[in-house]
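ARCHIVE CARD
CATEGORY: sequence design from structure
SOURCE FIELD: tokenized fold
FIELD CONTENT:
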């Protein structure tokens, strides 16, 4: 005798009917950025966001075409639809023997995203030794310094005054898919590594127009009260960030770009022979310039350095894509890990089933 199917089979049948719709929604909304890649990179991000400040980083970058070693500040949630994007970049290219790096501000709401990228060149490879990069961010200007010399400054334009929200601090090692921007990809270079000796943060005091206080991380250990490790990817990134590829050893933060089967780092990080002199030189140079720089009414953009700026070879779309479309734990979550997406989708699916 035919009867009513058990409730269990009704529920399963509903799930089978809804699953194709769910899959289409996931792919269309989150794109390929929600899925794994063939390579593994690394990113760490701060749990605390900062509004203005002086950020000094001492690092030795990865060499290799297609590779980017970075430090940047990022307003969590910038990548969300209709959100106002706020980001300040230091991006070192692995191509051309790692002799170039890019300073940049990214700001605006899609599709009207503005960039102020400038590419700086060095005679020596930035992958052979540690160098000191400094980013100064105030309500009046943003300036970049390399080994104690100012290389790029933007004063008082809407590019600067539009940066009004606290931003998280991030390091990452990854590979963009645009050969025009970062160079052609050849995975025979793997593994490659970015080594960070320290980051020194000074807060900005508007009353005195100076940098003071703050904190310093020498990476004697991985401070889970300050940093978290990314486990996501995003569009036009050929790597997926893996926590295993972000680690601390011998007083260095190590970010690795590897194949999935060779993650981590088992060697000895290179020593930083010039740490003391470079750090003190940079600190005195940038600190002494702060007061006069804030009161200056110079042109909106200038570049002064032994590392001469060169015309950027990247297109606007390539530069826009270079910025991670994510935010991670702590302060926000732009590119949510796929596991969380699946969990969220499952909850929505179950809610539909039970109606």
């Amino acid at each position: 005798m035919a009867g009513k199917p058990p409730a269990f089979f009704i529920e399963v049948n509903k799930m089978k009917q809804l699953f194709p719709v769910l899959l289409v929604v996931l792919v269309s909304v989150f794109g390929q950025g929600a899925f794994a890649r063939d390579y593994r990179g690394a990113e760490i991000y701060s749990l605390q966001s900062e509004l203005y400040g002086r950020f000094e980083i001492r690092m030795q970058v990865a060499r290799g075409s297609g590779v980017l070693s970075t430090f940047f500040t990022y307003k969590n949630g910038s990548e969300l639809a209709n959100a106002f994007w706020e980001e300040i970049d230091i991006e070192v290219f692995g191509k051309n023997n790692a002799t170039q790096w890019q300073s940049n501000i990214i700001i605006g709401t899609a599709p009207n995203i503005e960039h102020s990228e400038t590419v700086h060149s060095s005679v020596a490879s930035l992958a052979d030794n540690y160098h000191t990069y400094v980013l100064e961010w105030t309500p009046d200007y943003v300036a970049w310094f390399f080994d104690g010399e100012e290389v790029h400054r933007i004063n008082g334009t809407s590019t600067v005054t539009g940066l009004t929200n606290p931003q998280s601090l991030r390091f990452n090692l990854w590979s963009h898919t645009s050969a025009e921007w970062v160079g052609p990809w050849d995975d025979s270079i793997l593994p490659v590594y970015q080594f960070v000796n320290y980051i020194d943060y000074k807060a900005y005091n508007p009353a005195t127009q100076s940098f003071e206080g703050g904190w310093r991380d020498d990476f004697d250990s991985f401070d889970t009260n300050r940093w978290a490790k990314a486990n996501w990817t995003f569009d036009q990134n050929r790597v997926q960030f893996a926590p295993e590829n972000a680690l601390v050893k011998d007083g260095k933060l190590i970010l690795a770009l590897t194949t999935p089967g060779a993650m981590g780092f088992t060697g000895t990080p290179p020593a930083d022979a010039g740490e003391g002199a470079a750090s003190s030189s940079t600190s005195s140079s940038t600190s002494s310039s702060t007061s006069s720089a804030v009161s200056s009414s110079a042109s909106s953009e200038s570049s002064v350095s032994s590392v001469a700026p060169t015309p950027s070879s990247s297109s606007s779309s390539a530069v826009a894509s270079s910025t991670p479309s994510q935010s991670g734990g702590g302060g926000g979550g732009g590119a949510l890990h796929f596991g969380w997406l699946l969990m969220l989708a499952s909850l929505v699916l179950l809610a539909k089933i039970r109606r």
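CARD ANNOTATION: Residues 7-30 form the longest helix (24 residues). Residues 23-353 form a domain with the Jelly Rolls fold (CATH 2.60.120.200).
SHELF: design records, drawer C
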